[in-house]
């Protein structure tokens, strides 16, 4: 849907709010920023996400409430009392309870479309924001019977402007769904990661990519997640109870030397995994990754970036797999696919080891 | 360690065996290939992994037994009866039981070094093999009291030729360690993925990166994994029992509306997660993070690393938060805590914006 340049208020300049703001600024929208934390607004503004919300500003086209689930209803009521915008949406990971609370507070639900972009990172705050955070990601919209068509159209257009794909779904159905594909797995990842708290050093030294992937989301902000899990308690409890039961049964089968139950779980896991649409979890799908082996010495990375500059390649992201004491590390450089070969050639020409 | 070109027999031309063969061929070793499945040997040979094991070949320098844990002892006995090599190693994910079985079968353990490269993929078979599979990965070696020094040296050199970092560890300690960082997490990933088997389409449509990461390893070959888990049953059962207990307690706390137990698990998960060495773990753990706002221009990053060099600061890890079209990016530089202030001062002195 093509829309004119909008005036958007983003309330809450954390990871999601600032990422929405950056995406909208990128297409020319005017963005006003607000947050309880003035320093957070300053950083978001410095990053190019918009300008601080002016005093006595007239109503914007849309207000995006990027606050925790428990704060959505009160923030909506306050914003509507101040007439901050004509249409309101939120981005909280839970929908039923905030909607119920908003109705109880007497918010105007005709111009409110509850929303939830299915994108996030294990890191929070405006500094972690990215304009491309929502590219190709699902963005759930949960209109109520009171919601007007124009309000739904406006929020749909905003989500699409961020590059997301909208999915209209009932609030209860949404909450059970995210318990299954997000909140439950998050608790499971934390439970696996919690085993590492008292792990011997040798075990940590033998950690491979598997445990890193399984526990990645366990690195997320606990304060944020306690709010999400508490707001969606029953559906999440159902999911993790079922996971716990499967694990206990499997442990018993292993102790008894019975392979059938273990094989069954592995096969069911494979079948469930295969139901996930799309590529199997390639977050950096938009970029090509060039791996390069580098000595663990100061200055080596500067040479790497110099080489990229010489090759005229803009580095989008870099991750370094390096363990203290190891003489070499594997650096994964994310670049636009068209530039991957050029970068690999330049690095090889400079004597770097570029596998594959 | 520098070694002359070797003659190596690889028994078992699956993912790991063929990857070892490709890595060794890449440095000029002569590699002989054997497998129960002649088609698998042919494919590995076509991929450049070596040549089929000749009839009545003289003993090779090393034989790599790339067979499932349950087959290691019998394969070792057979290989030693045929005098296939002077030194033997395996790559199975479990060490204690195969070693016990080898001793019971009367294998010669003086020239055997049990080994385990901590690398793998969801795909199996020779077609999935990669010469760089072991680059920068840990490779556990479990010599027994009988193992000779020269045998350990030879297998250490072989692992290093594949680009791996060797870790010498006792077999029992190894098995408890991999139950914690690999086998237990694998079962947990399968249990989470199993929830998706009966998930409604709308839930699958809302799946984001988190569930994909948590369940990635659940896509692995069940036949291979049932063998691994059965061979390491007790340590794995201990781990997944503990995970199941944490999940059941958390579910109960959620149903009772108590946040304390949930918060505790999330915090323990974060603490465990931060203990993982390398790119995922150290950011908030061992190292201090210095965030820097930098213009999105080629060459700026090189200047950043030059500044670190001038300040005498060794950069341990770096993450670049850059969005297409954004005027500035945020670079998070991980350094030893003692060096963080020095780096921040140097960067500010050079006109960089260092928040906080």
Automatic annotation (TrEMBL), chains A, B:
Q: Name the UniProt key words of this record, in alphabetical order.
A: Amino-acid biosynthesis, Aromatic amino acid biosynthesis, Oxidoreductase
The annotated pathway is: Amino-acid biosynthesis
Q: Which GO terms describe its molecular function?
A: NAD+ binding; prephenate dehydrogenase (NAD+) activity; prephenate dehydrogenase (NADP+) activity
Q: Record's SUPFAM superfamilies?
A: 6-phosphogluconate dehydrogenase C-terminal domain-like, ACT-like, NAD(P)-binding Rossmann-fold domains
User: What's the superkingdom here?
Assistant: Bacteria
**Which BP terms does GO give this entry?**
tyrosine biosynthetic process
Q: Which Pfam families does the UniProt record give? A: PDH_C, PDH_N
Domain Prephenate/arogenate dehydrogenase intervals: 6-284
Stated family: Belongs to the prephenate/arogenate dehydrogenase family.
State the NCBIfam families in the record: PRK06545.2-1, PRK06545.2-3, PRK06545.2-4
- Protein's recorded name: Prephenate dehydrogenase
Q: What is the lineage of its organism?
A: Bacteria, Bacillati, Actinomycetota, Actinomycetes, Streptosporangiales
């Amino acid at each position: 849907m093509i829309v004119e340049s909008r005036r958007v208020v983003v309330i809450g300049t954390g990871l999601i709010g600032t990422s929405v703001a950056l995406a909208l600024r990128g297409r020319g929208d005017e963005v006003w920023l607000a947050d309880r934390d003035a320093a957070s607004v300053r950083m978001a503004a410095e990053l190019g996400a918009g300008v601080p919300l002016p005093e006595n500003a007239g109503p914007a086209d849309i207000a995006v409430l990027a606050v925790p689930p428990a704060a959505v209803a009160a923030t909506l009521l306050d914003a509507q009392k101040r007439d901050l915008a004509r249409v309101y949406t939120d981005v909280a990971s839970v929908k039923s309870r905030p909607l119920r609370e908003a109705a109880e507070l007497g918010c105007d639900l005709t111009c409110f479309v509850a929303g939830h972009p299915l994108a996030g990172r294990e890191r929070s705050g405006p500094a972690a924001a990215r304009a491309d955070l929502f590219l190709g990601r699902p963005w759930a919209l949960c209109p109520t019977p009171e919601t007007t068509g124009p309000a739904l159209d406006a929020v749909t257009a905003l989500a699409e402007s961020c590059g997301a794909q909208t999915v209209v779904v009932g609030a209860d159905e949404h909450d059970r769904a995210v318990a299954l594909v997000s909140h439950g797995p998050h608790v499971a990842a934390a439970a696996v990661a919690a085993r590492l708290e008292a792990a011997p050093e040798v075990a940590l030294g033998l950690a491979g990519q598997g445990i890193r992937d399984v526990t990645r989301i366990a690195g997320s902000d606990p304060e944020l997640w306690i709010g999400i899990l508490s707001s969606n308690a029953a559906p999440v409890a159902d999911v993790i109870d079922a996971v716990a039961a499967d694990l206990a049964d499997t442990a018993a089968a292993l102790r008894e030397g019975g392979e059938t139950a273990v094989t069954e779980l592995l096969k069911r896991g494979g079948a469930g995994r295969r139901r996930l649409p799309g590529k199997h979890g390639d977050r950096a799908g938009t970029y090509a990754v060039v791996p390069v082996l580098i000595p663990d010495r100061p200055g080596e990375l500067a040479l790497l970036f110099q080489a990229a500059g010489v090759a005229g390649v803009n580095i989008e992201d870099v991750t370094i797999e390096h363990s203290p004491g190891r003489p070499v590390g594997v650096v994964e450089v994310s670049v636009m696919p068209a530039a991957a070969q050029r970068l690999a050639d330049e690095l090889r020409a400079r004597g770097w080891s570029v596998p594959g």
